[in-house]
Amino acid sequence: MGTNPPSLDQTRLAKSALHWRVTVLSHDGRIHVYRQRNERYTEACTLKRDGFGGGGSVMVWGGVSQHHRTELVVIAGNLNAVCYKEDILLPHVVPFLQAHPDMTLQHDNATSHTAHSVRDFLQNRNVSVLSWPAKSLDLNPIEHVWDLLDRKANQTDFLPQTEMSTDMQPFNTTSTSSPFNTSDFIAKIAANDLTSRANYVYALCAVLGLASACILLYALIRSYRAQRYLAWLDSLLWAFSSSQLLLLLLSLSSVAHRPSYLVTTHIGCAALAFTVNMASLCGLLLLVFMGYALTFDTPTHTLLKRAGVCVALVLLVSILCSLVLARLRGPSKELHLEGICIIDPTEAGRSYAMAKLCLGCLIPYLLILGLLTGGCVRQWKSSSRFLSGSEEGPVFLAVAVVIFVCQLFHGIVLVRGAGMQQAGDLSYHERAFMHVSEFVMFSGSCVCLVLVLLLHRPCRESLLEVTRQLRDCCRGLGGRQTHRHIMAPHIEIADTQDYNP
């Protein structure tokens, strides 16, 4: 009598068990190293372990949620199902979950957690338990707390086992003076989570901005090859798009390191902040020139009729303003030392924050508002069309509004953070909010590139052409084999009435 072959589910479970037999993304279990013959006991191939007080260990248990935490429980000896029920679940977990009925318990597949007596105990008290698949990764959020606790413990001297459990008691206090305050760990994790979410959203915006910049570059080359020159407003628009693309590329330094910071020398960080401020000011001043051109149709001064002169003037003013901001930002000493790099640090003080808000938002937009008011007055007197009469008018209004909102938000948050920094150190949540405001400032560049692509007619035509070419290419790849041997017939009909043999 033959045996039935294994089912598909059994085969998949066997492969899964074989695949996850080796621990992944964890330091638990045995560590394998590549070595040559007779190198088994060399220092490079062995892991040093330090004991304290003659050996032994201290086992602790704790629970965290988004806004709450339990006490840190020091367990005497090993943890089994009876100890888990009587010393942890009954005095700590069940009262905590009864106070917060909307929560779910998440513990791993340790034998003390999955015992039948523990399962019955939790079911009798209506405790919701999150299922944990076998052989899965250890993605419990409390692992971040254990990591921070491990780092703190490694910074201190090892103590005997009897003193180690006594030294763990400060973790259960809520005093802010304790160096082992679990609430600080939870606040840092929540702040990093907020920063990471903002980083993911901005990364999507950056991808859209880079794709738009590539199509804009194609449109620029296409327009220049067709006309051999660019109109005055078109030149300013392309220069504005270039400044926004530069800002987008500079923002990748933040995307690559958040929620942490870029580590570089002070002079390198100052150069990065100077370039960011210069690119931002270039974009704003180019908007001022575009508003001037849309108001007066053509520049009144002879030099301003040349787009290259306008761009050079914008660069000069932007460099001077960026030098002023760099002087206020600092640092002025120890430029060769390394440290974390923050483009707009709150430690620079309110003077830098107010100067950044005025130079990077208020003054340029006051000029734009004055130009728009003058254009509306001219339109009312001459009964002519103002912004709606040109292709660049809708683009100018859209990008001006977007950059104003983003720069104003970042400037206000920076001034607020500088004031809080003078009153005291910023909390983790406030620093995460500063990161979000920085991403909002950079996202204005991405949105502007997309708006220029969609609202400017030549750029929109280039987008449609690229889309059509991609569609034709995909169709050609799909139908090349089907129609390869089909030949169109050619029939020729001749008139034979005038033919004489």
Structural features, described:
- InterPro entries: RNaseH_sf, Tc1-like_DDE_dom.
- It comes from Oncorhynchus tshawytscha.
- One of its GO terms (molecular function) is nucleic acid binding.
- Keywords: Membrane, Transmembrane, Transmembrane helix.
- With 501 residues, the protein is mainly α.
- It folds into 2 domains: 106 residues, 2-Layer Sandwich (Nucleotidyltransferase, domain 5), CATH 3.30.420.10; 287 residues, Rhodopsin 7-helix transmembrane proteins (Rhopdopsin 7-helix transmembrane proteins), CATH 1.20.1070.10.
- 61% of the residues lie in helices and 3% in strands.
- It has a two-stranded antiparallel sheet. Strands 3-4 form a two-stranded antiparallel ribbon.
If you consult CATH, what is the topology of the largest domain? Answer: Rhopdopsin 7-helix transmembrane proteins
Number of helices: 14
List the helices and strands in order. Answer: HEEHHHHHHHEHHEHHHH
Which CATH C-level class of the largest domain is it? Mainly Alpha
Helix content: 55-70%
Quaternary organisation of the protein chains: single chain
CATH homolog superfamily of the largest domain: Rhodopsin 7-helix transmembrane proteins
How many strands in all? 4
